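ping. complex inputs:
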Amino acid sequence: MTIDRAHATALPLLWFREVEKHYGGFTALAGVSLQVYRGEVVCIIGPSGSGKSTLLRCANLLEPFSSGAILFEGQDITRAARPASIRQRIGMVFQSFELFPHMTALQNIMSGPLTVKRTKRVQAEAEAGVLLDRVGLAGNAQSYPSALSGGQQQRVAIARALAMHPDILLFDEPTSALDPETVGEVLAVMQKLAADDVTMVVVTHEMGFARRAADWVVVMDHGQIVEEGPPALIFGSPTSARTRTFLSHMHSAH
Amino acid sequence: MNLDWSVVWENRGALLEGAGITISLAVTTMAAALPLGLGIAVLRESRWRVIRLLTTAYVEMFRSTPLILQIYWAFYVMPVALGLRLDAITTALFGLIFNIGAYNSETFRAGLRSIRTGQHNAGMALGMSPFQVFRTVVFPQALRRVLPALASTWISLFKDTSLVSVIAVGDLSYASLQLRSQTFRVFEFLTAMAVLYWAMGYPQAKLVDHLHRRFKVTE
Amino acid sequence: MSLAPILANWRFLTTALGVTLALTATSMIIGIIVGLIAGLLRTYGGRVADVCIGFYVDTMRAVPVLAILIWIFFAFPIAFGTSIKPFTAAATGLGLHIAAYFAEAVRAGLLSVRPGQTRAAFALGMTRLQAIRVVVLPQALIRMLPALGSLTTITIKDTAIAAAIAVPELMRQSQIIAGQTYRPFEVYTFAMLVYFLLCFPIARFVDSRFVRLAHRGAS
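pong. complex structure:
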């Protein structure tokens, strides 16, 4: 059976090839192979501790892995001499926001361009203002993170990642640390990005979001990809028993 | 520069005697400043405003002025003010005890206050008397918080005893300074003094770090 | 009790207070610069730097300020065949002493910033150096503010020890006036008050600033 993957091209933007990670006697990733194409939204779902977040961090070289390779635009970045230059092009949004508490919302967004790209301050500030507007927080430019709600902080964090004009955005459970009432505002921003054809890899427990926004859904368990396919297939007629068990747990939890 | 370390060796008796006085000063001071500090800490929670005010004034005054000045004050002012003639070593002890007592009281106060009232209530709910609650619930927890701070104060105290040399108490610094002027071997005796302090203080500092790690408070 | 000895020497005492403040400021500047470098090196500089700076820090914790000042002023020039002015010796000694405590405060501040912050900086493409400079260090410095307050008052108080090497600061000049006028009670009590008025508000001021800034260092 061939599954139609709308964004597929000859060369994936991000390409995991047989990535393994072991520490001590524990296997976090047991040979994961995955392609992410430009303009695509890939959602990774699966039970806690299945290796989803680890895979995401490996993509950004924030975590070393034992064997295999990760290719970015066809280039092997596994042993990149300057990981920082790769990371400039891969944005990341964290579960715990990780806004810098000593900077205002605007300064947070400017911090990447100013420090890393040495953008002129006037220009960085103008761009940060536009981004803040894009995530619906134009009025909070001068607020410190401590004065913002979780949902607002996460939206600033998304704007901060976007400020580097990354080729791809990685989301590590972006709504897991949020109060239920602010989850929606963050998902709305992400959905808008998806509509703008931003390439995204999203590790999430929000099945509704995966169903609506994903072009491709990946199910992981025990450090392996159990099943992958378009959302209609994964949520409609999953072939793997482990996927079915996981999805039924998610439904009963909600 | 020609150095003659044999002079130091020949006078080892005087130096060690000075070191002995340094140690006894520190031990005596701490022994007296512990109950003093605890007493002040309790009095600062008194229901009478005057007592709270007086004890607070005492603590802040001694924490906010130099110990060396306090020692001078005790030496020159106490006899005039109180009509008391004390020898140098007793005067020095007074200065040190009142100084360290003020710091200890802050330590005890923080320790006692850090125990959440919930812990107190939990003890009372089990049917304990207020004294039993203090003895079995509050005190053991406070001790874990108080001990590392007391250990740090001890380290400062051990060094601070050197300041009593300004009123001619024969501690390690006074002994070294005396030998320096008697023999004119300035470099040798001042270095010997620093090394002796180091040899006594360094292991203590390490021990205190160990205490801090061991009693790291976790809730 | 009479204020005459104070009033008669008003100019003299004001100048002395100026020297105390200048000595405090110079020592603090040395302490902050050396402490910042030592703290950063100890945290990020690898095993050798950790051991060396650890030795420096613990030595400064173990040896009395008096011994350090006297050694720098009297012994050091003999060893190196130079001479050193009292003020320079005092500022160097006090600065290097307080630097050790600063280094520890810097290190504790740096280590307390949670790793997610560094990860977020890396994710933006920052290098290790940029992440420390832009993200970790500013937060550590805010968290250090309470320590900065207490280290400032410690330094003010310790400048009085410089009297032992004849730096013409408040303590030393008070001794001189007390000796000339035979009024130790008035003179030392006055000095006590001046030190209190210097130290007490500083600690309060820094604490109140910190309360307003704390949220910017709390990741």
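The longest helix of chain C spans residues 10-44.
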